[in-house]
Amino acid sequence: MIIVNTDFITGKELETLGMVKGSVIQAKHVGKDIMSGLKGLVGGELTAYSEMMNEARAKATKRMVEEAQTMGADGVINVRYTSAAVMQGAAEILVYGTAVRFR
Question: Where are the domains of the chain?
Fold first, then answer.
């Protein structure tokens, strides 16, 4: 499966199948949330949140790819990510794009 953020795949003629998406809402353990709050006072990277967002992006992308595969897609173009805070310490990641089949 080819995943790109452009509206084309070089050297391929594409047939559009439709929009696909994947999403996840993920939270960190409350203990890590407290430690990150303390880290926020002194500055620096909040690694627990970086890890949480990386895990969430990977899960959301996997779900999008699975949806594209059920449509018989060879790739997903115009891929975009968005995030939103759902509550303290939790975030939603949404990834979406256009499923395509090679001609």
Answer: 2-102
Q: List pLDDT tens digits, range 20-74.
A: 999 999 886 545 555 555 555 566 777 878 888 899 999 999 999 999 999 999 9
* Residue length of the chain: 103
Closest CA to 89 of 24, 38, 34, 23: 34
Q: Which fold has domain 2-102?
A: Translation Initiation Factor IF3 (3.30.110)
Cite the beta strand spans of 33-103 per DSSP E. Answer: 75-87, 90-102
The model carries a pTM of 0.82
Alpha carbon 37 to its chain's center: 25
